[in-house]
Amino acid sequence: MLDLVKLPVLLRKCINMKIRKGDKIKVIAGKDKGREGIVEKVYIRQETVLVPGTNLYKKHVRKSEQMPKGGVVEVPRPLSMGKVMVICPKCKKPTRVGYMREKGSKSRICKKCKSTI
User: Fold this and answer.
1) DSSP letters of 52-91?
2) What is the extent of the structural domain holding 39?
3) Is the pLDDT of residue 88 over 70?
């Protein structure tokens, strides 16, 4: 068993990250409550996830070569891990994530139907 006290803070958080890139999630709190999406990026230190199409904010952009007109652009901002739940691919329900050890390998499981995620 790993001694968590001796590990750096960054590695301690890595061990507990239950949501990964590519997971289908459902937003359970905030202005986008009920929306679903696929995780594009996970920010480990901030404990947030970036999901396109959710948590959109408007950003004013100056004229440039990339945007010759400039204007207002909608930009997705990261969501806190506590505001999202993983959707199980088998039972299609939002669920908590657990871990199961089998023959030296550790796999994530759905807490509702006990299938691997």
Assistant:
1) TTSSEEEEEE---SS-SS-EEEEEE--EEGGGEEEEPTTT
2) 9-90
3) yes
CATH number reported for the structural domain that contains residue 18 in this entry:
2.30.30.30
Nearest 10 degrees: CA dihedral of 76, 52, 116, 15?
-30
The pTM of the full predicted model, rounded to 2 decimals, is 0.74
Structure tokens at 17: 């990250």
The tokens describing 89, both together, are 């691919």
pLDDT at 4: 58
Domain count, the chain: 1
Q: Looking at the domain assignment, is residue 21 inside a domain?
A: yes
Residue 117 lies in a domain: no
- Given the DSSP bridges, would you call strands 84-87 and 94-95 parallel, antiparallel or unpaired? antiparallel
**Does residue 48 lie within any of the structural domains?**
yes
CA max distance for the chain: 58
Condensed to tens digits (0 to 9), the pLDDT of residues 27-64 reads 999 899 999 999 999 998 889 999 999 999 999 999 99
Angle at 15 between CA 14 and CA 17, to 5 degrees: 65
